[in-house]
Specification:
By secondary structure, the chain is α/β, with parallel strands linked by helices. The chain has two domains: about 1-335, ANL, N-terminal domain (Rossmann fold); about 340-440, 2-Layer Sandwich (GMP Synthetase, Chain A, domain 3), CATH 3.30.300. It is built from eleven helices and 20 strands. The longest helix has 22 residues, at about 15-35. The chain is globular. The chain binds zinc ion. Zinc ion binds near residues 258, 323, 325 and 327.
């Protein structure tokens, strides 16, 4: 494999060389937060922690977690950006909104320095995801509040590739523009890549591979790492798919998958300090091969809206073995988000894992599905109701239903009640897919 880096020194650094850099920045950041953030002054005081108690990263675990709800409350009580914001509004040059999967959105402010940091992390992640200066990137993602929009534009321009902003809801324009400009990279959500592939075949009568994309660069939802979806998209477009993951409170894209496709590399080495915790007990876990837990971020180079030990609710598996691309950072796969998790008789089930199985059954199913909830989760009384679309060619529906229920029980260890519905019944998504319908909310 060709070894190419955006910042060779930092991306190939040994962990023991990186740690002192992270530590120095962490202590500097902590001084800043202690001085400038009323939110953290109060939080640390409430937990009986003094600045002198924290002398290095080995003391980080003594600091309390920051939850998304804390930030939401801080912003409601101290508008516009909250008492955690730590920088005067005069210094803020951009404000994004973090949609989150639940609750009221929060705003994230950036100073000029923060903007530079975001651009650097995101560019490093996109370069890891194989975006190069010679590429023409067709951007089929919205450019509004969403951190996958404008910050990605900045990062792609920083790499030196050509950025083509198309947005969503304009598939006809994606087709025409890609052909005329010779677009070779499609940047979108995995849901859009699936939607667009069907659109090309059904509406434009084109095979997706004929558009000439050489790379599919996806993110913003777990789909790119779901094995059956990844396989389907790589076959449809006949090119490499690489996924990424970020967090609107930390940075737009923090992890990027290299061509070895053995998980996404951590790409914010000197900007974010990551921890792995047991999501139930909050206990710190070792970042070692095969470990599974929740990601926690401490920003170590941030002026506006710094967060310390921020619980992401992202559940991940860690890989630490060497990678053929030459990068030394650890890698992850995202299992799902705690907010989406369902619990059936004590077994954790993520909707993306169900989607994986339903997609694996293509072409007998269309791959589209919806979990139906009569009552709020996460605890659900089995059987779990799932609507699954079958393809027009499938004739033996009784057998298909039985097979789906058996595989779901064997692989994910829960009892499902599958309701087969015809092709085109379920909603399609051009941004993030919604895999659960909450009937109790009147959806
Ligand atoms: Zn790699």
């Amino acid at each position: 494999m060709k070894k190419e880096f955006f910042n060779k020194e930092i991306e190939t650094m040994r962990p023991e060389e990186l740690l002192p850099i992270q530590e120095e920045k962490f202590l500097h950041q902590l001084d800043y937060v202690w001085k400038k953030s009323p939110f953290y002054q109060k939080k640390f005081k409430e937990h009986g922690i003094e600045r002198g108690d924290i002398n290095g990263l080995e003391d980080l675990h003594k600091l309390p977690f920051t939850e998304k709800d804390d930030l939401r409350k801080s912003q409601e009580e101290h508008p516009p950006l909250g008492s955690h914001s730590a920088a005067p509004m005069d210094d803020v040059i951009r404000i994004h909104s973090s949609s989150g999967t639940t609750g009221v959105p929060t705003f994230v402010g950036l100073t000029r320095h923060d903007h530079k940091v975001w651009t650097d992390i995101t560019a490093r992640s996109l370069f890891t995801k194989s975006v190069r200066p010679t590429d023409v990137v067709i951007h089929a993602v919205g450019l509004t509040f969403f951190v996958g929009g404008l910050p990605v534009k900045d990062a792609i321009e920083h790499i030196g590739a050509a950025f083509v902003p198309i947005g969503t809801g304009a598939s006809d324009r994606v087709v025409v523009t890609t052909k005329r400009l010779g677009g070779n990279v499609l940047h979108c959500t995995p849901s859009y890549a699936q939607y667009f592939s069907d659109y090309l075949r059904k509406k434009e009568n084109i095979d997706p591979s004929d558009l000439g994309f050489k790379k599919l660069v996806v993110g913003a939802e777990p789909g790119g790492g779901v094995p059956a979806i990844k396989k389907r998209l790589q076959e449809d477009y006949q090119c490499l798919l690489s996924e990424g993951m970020g967090n609107s409170d930390a940075a737009p894209i923090i992890f990027g998958e290299c061509p070895a496709q053995q998980g996404m590399h951590f790409c914010a080495q000197e900007y974010i300090f990551p921890e792995l915790i047991n999501p139930d007990s909050g206990e710190l876990m070792e970042m070692k091969e095969g470990a599974e837990g929740e990601l926690v971020y401490t920003l170590i180079d941030r002026e506006c809206c710094p967060v310390v030990r921020f619980r992401t609710r992202d559940r991940i598996t860690v890989f630490t073995g060497p990678c053929g691309c030459g990068r030394t950072s650890f890698r992850i796969r995202c299992i799902g988000r705690t907010d989406d998790m369902l619990i059936l008789l004590g077994v954790n089930v993520f909707p993306s894992a169900i989607k994986d199985i339903i997609t694996f059954f293509r072409p007998r199913t269309t791959g589209d599905m919806l979990v139906l909830l009569d009552k709020p989760g996460p605890k659900v009384e089995p059987p779990l109701r799932i609507q699954v679309e079958y393809s027009p060619e499938e004739k033996d529906l009784d057998t298909l239903k039985k097979e789906l229920e058996t595989v779901l029980r064997n692989k994910l260890v829960f009892r499902a009640d599958v309701e087969l519905v015809p092709d085109g019944t379920l909603p399609r998504f051009e941004m993030k897919a919604k895999l659960i319908r909450e009937l109790y909310k009147g959806e």
